[in-house]
Amino acid sequence: MTVAAPLPGAPLAVSLGDPAGIAPEVIARAWFEREGQALAPFFVVGGAGVLQAAASTLGIALPVTVISDPSQAAAEFGKSLPVLGSEDCAPCPGSPSRDGAALALHSLQRAVELALGGSAGAVVTGPVAKSRLAQIGFTQPGQTEFLADACGVAHDDAVMMLAGPSLRTVPLTVHAALAAVPGLISHDLIVRKARIIARALARDFGLPNARIAVTGLNPHAGEDGRMGTEDRDIIAPAIAALRAQGLCVTGPHPADALFAAHERARYDVALCMYHDQALIPIKTLDFDQGVNVTLGLPIVRTSPDHGTAFGIAGTGTASAGAMIAALRMAGECAARRAA
Question: What is the DSSP secondary-structure string of 163-195?
Answer without folding.
Answer: E-SS-EEEESS-S--GGGHHHH--HHHHHHHHH
